[in-house]
Write a structure and sequence with these properties.
It is built from 6 helices and 8 strands, in the order H-E-H-H-E-E-E-H-H-E-E-E-H-E. The chain is an alpha/beta fold and 210 residues long. A hairpin with a 5-residue loop joins strand 3 and strand 4. The longest helix has 25 residues. The radius of gyration is 22 Å and the shape is elongated. About 8% of the residues have low confidence.
Length: 210
């Protein structure tokens, strides 16, 4: 009898722990396959081999208050709120770096080189650097991605520094926020790819240099 009571107590304890645990965390990524870019990836690869050549993408800096695993949203009063159960699959800076690298690879037909590889041929490598000024997620309203980025072409005599502001309206829910920023990353990659192929300032950005 006592053994049965003990077993019942243990079972109730386990059930209570299960009942108190919150919902499982949801994980999101900024990476996405752009079907439109995939259609032109072969022709882009040909253009890349003729004009872009080797290129690198440096580590991307983002505002410290949003660079973590948990998704951070901006409330209507301007305050930031961390979503405990909604997370990126890696830090935001690493998410942006991976997503942008994949999008550039899709458009140019080749990925950015790793640092150790590029150092063997610095004179023939185009360098891309990026500093994210704003990464805002406003639930049910919009998402914004503001960046300052620079491209230094081989030889060090030709460069561009650009400021790009991207914004998308979004619906309700975390998934809508993530998908909106995925759209922004794809748009940013398209501008970068255009610059790498043409060596000119892309439409939609404010640039200096030459």
């Amino acid at each position: 009898m006592k053994l049965s009571l003990i077993r019942c107590a243990l079972a109730l304890g386990v059930l209570s722990l299960v009942g108190c645990s919150g919902p499982p965390a949801q994980h999101y990524t900024l990476s996405r396959i752009d079907s439109q870019a995939a259609l032109v990836s072969k022709s882009a690869a040909v253009q890349s081999s003729r004009g872009v050549g080797l290129y690198t993408l440096s580590e991307i800096s983002v505002p410290a208050q949003v660079d973590n695993l948990s998704i951070v949203v901006r409330q209507g009063d301007g305050r930031l709120m961390v979503l405990g159960e909604d997370k990126w699959t890696g830090s935001l800076s690493s998410q942006l770096s991976t997503a942008l690298s994949q999008a550039l690879t899709q458009r140019l037909g080749m990925p950015p080189l790793q640092k150790l590889v590029s150092e063997a041929a610095l004179s023939s490598v185009t360098k891309v650097q990026m500093d994210v000024q704003r990464f805002d997620l406003i639930p049910g309203q919009s998402v914004s991605l503001d960046t300052v980025w620079s491209v230094r072409f081989p030889g060090g005599k030709s460069f561009l520094t650009c400021y790009t502001r991207l914004q998308q309206p979004v619906g309700i829910g975390v998934l809508a926020l993530v998908q909106g920023q995925q759209d922004n990353v794809q748009a940013l990659a398209a501008q970068l790819a255009e610059t790498l192929m043409s060596r000119k300032a892309p439409a939609g950005s404010t640039c200096t240099g030459g």
